[in-house]
Design brief:
- The complex is a heterodimer of chains A (493) and B (444).
- Chain A is of the alpha/beta class.
- Helix content of chain A is 42%, strand content 17%.
- Chain A folds into two domains: 206 residues, 2-Layer Sandwich (Cytochrome Bc1 Complex, Chain A, domain 1), CATH 3.30.830; 253 residues, Cytochrome Bc1 Complex, Chain A, domain 1 (2-Layer Sandwich), CATH 3.30.830.10.
- In chain A, the strands form two sheets. In chain A, strands 8-9-7-10-6-11 form a six-stranded mixed sheet. Chain A has a five-stranded mixed sheet with strand order 1-5-2-4-3, with helices on both faces.
- In chain A, a hairpin with a 4-residue loop joins strand 3 and strand 4.
- In chain A, helix 11 packs across helix 15 and helix 12 packs antiparallel against helix 14.
- Chain B is α+β, with helices and mostly antiparallel strands and 444 residues long.
- Chain B has two domains: 202 residues, Cytochrome Bc1 Complex, Chain A, domain 1, CATH 3.30.830.10; 184 residues, Metalloenzyme, LuxS/M16 peptidase-like (Cytochrome Bc1 Complex, Chain A, domain 1).
- Chain B has 15 helices and twelve strands.
- In chain B, strand 2 and strand 3 form a beta hairpin.
- At the A-B interface, helix 2, strand 4, helix 4, helix 10 and strand 9 of A face helix 2, strand 5, strand 6, helix 4 and helix 10 of B.
């Protein structure tokens, strides 16, 4: 199928700016717990074109492999009585290594943490284990066991196809199978530099601890921060649909399009209000949730996003340090029963159209603004999250997130929100990813444009039935050439 | 009316200092019983501005005794968001949003927890809303039927994961009579029949949504006296009931059992080796000892992990658990295998490890490591008011007081290598065992 953006294939250039040392973000406190977050401003967007997944596998090798001095088993045994660990999270532009320890164990814990990052062991048995883990994550955990996360990741791949964001962070199974330790070492040498590092510390650590950490990590190469060239994805015209054929009970949808607004941009607070009104994550007050689940019982929930939010089915708040310069607007429709799949998609698009055309009422605006002004406190309820948000704020060049959001929300008007919706969400097209069994049957229904009347197991209010008459005929601007069906076995290969 | 005020509290630091009192739960709390049977536990924390409220109802899928009613406690959790005459769902949602509240609920085998985290100035608003729905829930048969479809949607989204199917088969095989035979989600046929069960849903509410089944946990930036006054004001008129469920006891298993699940599409194989264990107790050491065995034998620091995950790399996930339950439940070892052909070999390794606990006492030093791990792990988890309330909620579902946490950890300290061996010989034996396996099918 024809895609304008495939023609825009541009290689990301990682590394080419002025040298700088590590930055330190400190949140000292009285807690007996100490949290360390080391964020490297690099990630999957810096994977060489022929090595998708190398950033993630390198990070895994550091966090779940041995050091030169200690085997992985020795590390695990040492950390076990402390109930501590070093975890890593790799995204497009950030790799974070984090852990929390009780102050009793800070010295022993930090020594291991430091060596894991500064003096990795690069053992072949660790590499074999982690390579298997990565391939199994792609083929089994993501592709086989979680239709919703699968749909979301394919949506991102689709929107950014051919661009630095255009592959799942773990890469592709075939590329991972061919990767070597030398590939990881090359990535480590080039990207794990002082200039790319932000050191985050929180809790009751000793006063001299930050300068000690900074001095230790000054052993990293003095290389420059990554300068990543990110061409804009071109918005679709009409709808482009990827259908993933899979033996599954129900039909999952992910819908999205590129969004040229990120944290810190003038319209970010306004769009955050719009997104919260339309589909606040895992809350029952959103418009989509109310119309799809509460009024009609179509599924378990329906939400919308301005920022990348992986693992949303497992958690209520997003993890920090997933900062990106490019975001998409995303709608998540949780699995629906196959007979209602056509209607459910129509209803989601109908509601989205309504959002763009009508915006928010004054009452909805005020209610949502009040909600967000208070809800923001919950995002930073742990020292670890607060530290993560502080680092993200540094990345985006904004003040501390709570203060930034509260003051921005205080100045907002309903008209600001509705103007931002029209400007940024009135997309000319969108990508839709479907995970389903019998995709061809659903495809032909969607292409036919035939009405898809709903039947319910109980009487419904007249306003719902009246609305259904419109929704069941809602036009989905889908052309046969814009649909492709992919067997699940081919995804992430 | 009875009030217990636990006055002090060790800081989490003190919990580990040599010679210092070793209270595992480091916070002072106010525990108060109202005449109608409701219990309130208020826990001031040093996390500013935020308050977390958990309302724990001691009813879960364990209470689903009648045939065809599996999944009902969970369905009822959904119904609790369907409004009252005073606050229909839209108004409830509006009020919660005005409070900036994150509100949700979950159901387990033994209890259902409704949790809300919000800014401290909205405490009264949130308590008023919650008290209203717990006493005056009202929904029509039409709304009930619609909500049953959301539950089916939840079943559907879970169904993509083969582990759900494995657990379903494991429980169904291991249990004959007790309601732990089914998962909280319920059997699919019962979920599909839920739309026809409106009357039973009202009966469920009448039976269990009573103050004697409820414990309210409030943690955060609060003053306990003020919380108590508000709870009295809004929950004081809640009428107690008199229903007491007769949960069938599980007879002793008389021989080893096995079950195999074929997953329709490609996936990695799973092995589950389970044994009937004891109920939760903060007096009898059996469950605590089994929990220690789960770490000793199958955590990332275990010898078996070194062999199967790090050295031979046959397995990519290995763990064991012995969760706290009101009635006797299962001690289960789980492993995910890279090759289906290794199922027998890995099963034998697991059985050999378990046999080792029966034949030899564990090293005292290793046992101490695990005990330290459990204490630190618990302390590290109490890192915000919501986590504190949520942790306490799990324990009040069992004993209705945070004190049980301290008793449990004191008990861990007393467990010896000989005690570990005694418990292994009692529970981890062949006639008490069920092995469930799962393997994937071919690509389409």
């Amino acid at each position: 199928m024809k895609t304008a953006r495939m023609a825009m294939l541009v290689t990301a250039i990682c590394g080419a700016a002025a040298a700088a040392g590590p930055k330190v973000v400190e949140l000292p406190g009285k807690s007996p717990l100490v949290t360390i977050r080391l964020v490297f401003l690099t990630g999957a967007a810096c994977d060489p074109a022929d090595k998708p997944g190398v950033a993630e596998l390198t990070a895994a090798m550091l966090a779940r492999g041995g050091t030169r001095e200690m085997s992985y088993k020795q590390i695990v045994d040492a950390l076990f009585p402390m109930a501590a660990s070093v975890t890593e999270q790799t995204d497009k532009e950030m790799i974070v290594f984090s852990g929390t320890t009780h102050i009793d164990n800070l010295e022993a814990y930090y020594k291991i943490f430091r060596e894991m990052l500064l003096d990795p062991g690069w053992r072949k048995e660790d590499f074999a284990r982690l390579r298997d883990d990565t391939v199994n994550y792609l083929r089994v955990t993501l592709r086989g066991n979680n239709d919703e996360e699968l749909g979301k990741e394919v949506l991102y791949n689709q929107i950014y196809a051919g661009l630095p964001y255009g592959h799942e962070n773990h890469g592709t199974a075939s590329a991972i199978e061919e990767m070597t330790i030398a590939d990881l070492q090359a990535f480590y040498r080039a990207q794990f530099t002082q200039g790319n590092l932000i050191i985050g510390l929180a809790g009751g650590y000793p006063a001299a601890f930050p300068s000690r950490v900074k001095a230790d990590f000054a052993k990293l190469p003095a290389g420059p921060p990554a300068a990543l060239h990110l061409p804009e994805p071109q918005p679709e015209r009409g709808i482009r649909m990827t259908m993933i054929e899979k033996d599954t009970r129900s039909v999952a949808y992910s819908i999205g399009f590129p969004l040229n607004v990120k944290r810190g941009d003038p319209d970010y607070p306004a769009l955050l209000v719009a997104q919260s009104y339309f589909g606040q994550h895992r809350e029952s007050g959103g418009r989509l949730f109310e119309r799809m689940r509460q009024a009609r019982g179509l599924n378990y929930g329906d939400y919308a996003y301005l920022e990348y939010f992986p693992r949303g089915m497992m958690q209520f708040e997003p993890d920090p340090n997933l900062a990106r310069r490019q975001q998409i607007f995303q709608i998540w429709i949780r699995p629906v029963e196959p007979p209602t799949a056509q209607f459910a998609l129509r209803l989601a698009l109908f509601e989205f159209d309504k959002l763009v055309k009508d915006g928010l009422s004054e009452e909805s605006f005020e209610r949502t603004r009040t909600f967000l002004t208070k809800y923001v406190n919950l995002l930073t309820k742990t020292a670890d999250a607060k530290l993560g948000y502080s680092i993200d704020s540094q990345y985006y060049g904004i003040p501390e997130y709570n203060g930034y959001l509260k003051s921005s929300l205080a100045k907002l008007t309903r008209e600001d929100v509705n103007r931002a919706i029209r400007k940024h969400l009135g997309a000319t097209g969108m990508d839709i990813v479907v995970v389903a069994k019998n995709c061809a049957e659903l495809e032909s229904k969607l292409l036919s444009g035939e009405p898809s009347p709903m039947t319910y197991n109980s009487p419904k209010p007249q306003e719902v039935l009246d609305e259904d008459k419109i929704v069941e005929r809602w036009k989905i601007d889908l052309k046969p050439e814009a649909v492709r069906i992919v067997p699940v076995e081919k995804v992430f290969e | 009316m009875r009030t217990l005020i636990v006055l002090l509290a060790w800081s989490a630091v003190a919990a580990f200092e040599a010679g210092a009192p070793r209270q595992a739960f480091p916070y002072a709390y106010d525990q108060h019983d109202f005449p109608n049977g409701l219990r309130l536990i208020s826990i001031p924390t040093d996390y500013p501005n935020v308050v977390s409220l958990f309302i724990v109802m001691q009813t879960g899928s364990r209470n689903e005794m009648e045939p065809g009613k599996t999944g009902f406690a969970h369905l009822f959790e959904h119904m609790m968001f369907r409004g009252t005459p005073t606050f229909p769902p839209a108004e409830y949602e509006n009020a919660m949003r005005q409070a900036g509240a994150a509100s949700n609920a979950y159901t387990t085998d033994d209890f259902t927890a409704y949790h809300t985290t919000f800014s401290k100035e909205d405490l009264e608003t949130v308590l008023r809303l919650e008290a209203d729905r717990f006493q005056n829930l009202a929904y029509t048969p039409e709304v009930f039927k619609t909500e049953t479809l959301a539950v089916l949607g939840e079943y559907n989204k879970n169904s993509a994961n083969p582990l759900q199917k494995l657990y379903e088969a494991l429980r169904d095989t291991a249990f004959d009579r007790h309601t732990y035979k089914h998962q909280t989600m319920g059997f699919l046929k019962d979920v599909q029949n839920m739309p026809n069960q409106y009357d039973y849903s009202r009966l469920f509410f009448e039976r269990y949504y009573r103050p004697e089944y409820a414990t309210i946990v409030v943690a955060g930036d609060i003053a306990p006296a003020a919380v108590r006054a508000l709870v009295e004001k809004y929950f004081g008129e809640w009428k107690p009931g008199d229903y007491r469920p007769q949960i069938p006891a599980e007879p002793a298993q008389q021989g080893a059992r096995t079950v195999h699940v074929v997953w329709p599409s490609p996936t990695l194989a799973w092995l589950a080796v389970a044994f009937h264990g004891p109920a939760y107790s903060d007096e009898q050491t059996d469950l605590a000892a089994l929990n220690l065995i789960s770490y000793l034998g199958f955590s990332e620091s275990s010898e078996l992990y070194r062999k199967l995950v790090i050295q031979e790399q046959k397995v990519d996930m290995l763990r064991a658990s012995c969760p706290n339950h009101v009635d006797p439940n299962l001690f289960t070892v789980m492993a995910r295998l890279k090759k289906t052909g290794d199922l027998d070999a890995v099963r034998d390794d697991v059985l050999e490890t378990l046999a080792g606990f029966r034949t030899n006492p564990v090293a005292a030093e290793r046992l101490d490591q695990v005990k330290r791990r459990l204490r630190y792990s618990f302390a590290l988890g109490l890192n915000n008011s919501e986590a504190i309330a949520g942790t306490v909620a799990q324990f009040v579902a069992l004993r209705r007081t945070p004190e049980t946490i301290n008793r449990l950890f004191e008990m861990y300290d007393r467990i010896t290598p000989e005690e570990i061996q005694r418990v292994a010989r009692k529970y981890l034996v062949d006639e008490n065992r069920t092995i469930a396996t799962l393997s994937g099918g071919k690509a389409q």
